[in-house]
Structure formats: structure tokens, C-alpha cells
Amino acid sequence: MAKQxxxxxxxxxxxxxVEVTDEVLFGDVWERAGLSPRDRSLxxxxxxxxxxxxxxxGHHLRVALENGLSVAELxxxxxxxxxxxxWPNAMTAITRxxxxxxxxxxx
Length: 107
Description:
- By secondary structure, this protein is an all-alpha fold.
- It contains 5 helices and no strands.
- The protein has helices at about 15-25, 35-50, 55-65, 70-85, 85-105.
- Helix 2 (about 35-50) packs across helix 4 and helix 3 crosses helix 5.
- It starts with 14 loop residues before the first helix and ends with a helix.
- Its EC number is 4.1.1.44.
- InterPro entries: 4CMD/NDH-1_regulator, AhpD-like, CMD-like.
- Pfam families: CMD (PF02627).
- GO terms for molecular function: 4-carboxymuconolactone decarboxylase activity.
């Protein structure tokens, strides 16, 4: 699993938020045995796309790829959620996924 943490540059303004993000969200919730990191990534990407949380989506798409999801699987999940979460949300998410896939292909 990709090790995640809150952006440390935020610690100067919100040290407690960074602390609980690292210790509770990424140190406990993401580490629980009930779901694999891959499955947690699929759930997280789906929710972020459905709720139109674009600022966090790019990071979690990259984490999802690192956690073993393929671009094709993420594309299929985004296509599926278009019917439940709305077309604009899905189009935004798939555009972001394409940008990331293109960046990785070029690297």
C-alpha cells in the first residue's frame, strides 16, 4: 500500500488536523484488515468522484493505481457511478484519470 499522510505544510496552520489525519485516518482506518488497500482505494475514489471532491480526487487516483487498481478498472468504476452520482461528476473524474494516466505514460 502507498503510505499516505496529510500535506505537512498544513501543520503550521492546522497541526491537530494533520495529526489526526495521519494517526487516525491513515494510521488506523486505512490500516484496518477488513478491506484491502486496493478495495479502500476503490471506495475512496468512488466517493470522492460522486461527491465532486476534485481537490482530493487526483491524489487518491494515484494511490489507487499504486494500490493495484488499473486505469481500466478505475474507468469502469467511474462509468458505473455516472448513473448513480451524475454525469458531470463522472466526466470530471474520468478527465482527471486520463490526465494522470497520460502523465504516467509519459514518465
